[in-house]
Write a structure and sequence with these properties.
Layout lengths: L56 H4 L13 E5 H11 L3 E2 L1 H6 L8 E5 L9 E4 L1 E2 L1 H9 L3 E4 L1
Parallel strand pairs: 1-3, 2-4, 3-5, 4-6
Length: 148
């Protein structure tokens, strides 16, 4: 063992530079904060979204339109989906529980039956709303509807 090979144990010394501890450290004076301005002062904290005086993003982006809080949003389910589902489960009754169990809708969804596709089976369909074309297609195949 020689003096020039001695090293402190791992984790025994700090690897971070000590800022603002005098000129001898090489990081004294302004303590790496530059000259003047709010960010060089003690106690400085910026508001979230502050961009140095530049117009902030939330004020630059245009705002238009509005969200109607009384809007009723339906989850659309087409007739071709009902046809595939009835063949899959071998049932003529399609209600909300069947749609929920098969992952077609979510627990809180309102369901509207839409008219895309062909229906070859006689189905009994229960939902919150129906389009005119969906009603026509279901009744044409001999099925029936019931609204909730």
């Amino acid at each position: 063992m020689k003096l020039h090979t001695l090293m402190p144990a791992e984790g025994a010394t700090k690897t971070t530079k000590r800022i603002g501890r005098g000129e001898g450290t090489g990081r004294g004076g302004t303590a790496t904060k530059g000259h003047k301005g709010a960010q060089s002062r003690s106690g400085y904290s910026s508001k979230s979204g502050f961009e140095g005086g530049q117009m902030p993003l939330q004020r630059r982006v245009p705002k238009f339109g509005f969200n109607n809080k009384f809007r009723v949003a339906y989850k659309g389910v087409n007739i071709d989906t009902l046809q595939e589902l009835s063949e899959k489960i071998n049932s003529d009754v399609i209600d909300l529980q069947v749609l929920l169990d098969n992952g077609v809708i979510g627990k809180k969804d309102l369901v509207k039956i839409l008219g895309r596709g062909e229906l070859t089976k006689k189905l009994t369909v229960t939902a919150h709303a129906f389009t005119a074309s969906a009603v026509a297609a279901i009744e044409k195949s001999g099925g029936s509807i019931s609204k909730l």
